[in-house]
Amino acid sequence: MSISEVLIMYECFNCLSRSVIWDCDFSFEDYGYDGEGIIHECHCENCGARIMYFIPIDDEDDQTEK
Ligand SMILES: [Zn+2]
Question: Model-level pTM?
């Protein structure tokens, strides 16, 4: 997978235009949130919306799911 594939635009939740590009990643710590996790920041070039994905990382060894 190349870098350019990471930056592929996808559909904006707000304006439904295929203009969303990835900006950068932060950790939960950068934002002062508790726990482990990653925050993906993106924005829409069409409507200017900012999109943030909060992805918690469950650090506990609790793999007891079926
Ligand atoms: Zn948009």
Answer: 0.67
